[in-house]
Amino acid sequence: MDIKEIENLIRFVSSQKNVGEVEIEKKDFKLVIRKPSQQVISAPQYIQAQVAAPAQQAALPAATSTEQTSAPVITSTTPAAESSNLITIKSPMIGTFYRSSSPDKPSFVNVGDEIKVGKPVCIIEAMKLFNEIESEVSGKIVKVLVDNATPVEYDQPLFLVEPN
Predict the structure, then answer these.
(1) Using CA of residue 41, residue 76, residue 95, residue 64, what is the dihedral sign?
(2) Whether 90 contacts 75, CB under 8 Å
(3) What is the per-residue pLDDT across 145-157, written as a single tens digit (0 to 9) for each?
(4) Distance of alpha carbon 4 from its chain centroid, rounded?
(5) Which of 62, 76, 97, 106 is the most exposed, fewest CB within 10 Å of its CB?
């Protein structure tokens, strides 16, 4: 499946009112396209022009299947996280990571902050949509793993959380 076919599927899903999701599965390739959730917030006052690197463009077809989800993927599969009982909050999509809703606003979370399920932890901008990422775990932020206004990949670790 080439990029043009994927783009056509995305246009089809977004233009149809009664189609919310399309799933295609071939031998070792699976693609799921979902309409964005209603948790999109208005754009921050700062918008950076981003030029996608060739590696990001090559990763686009494989990652498109989860671009429109709004909940972060939470796992503790890294050896450091398993041994120290920390949970990793990972990026649910490719985009640009923002720690606050605009440059003059405080960060959603900082190291040492207590978070609860449903509390916004960051924003990831993907295709000019600003997706508020909410925590699916309660605990204390131990480490922020990504700098503000930097590109992130699907499943990239964003935060380390010590669960309550």
Answers:
(1) negative
(2) yes
(3) 999 999 999 999 9
(4) 23
(5) 106
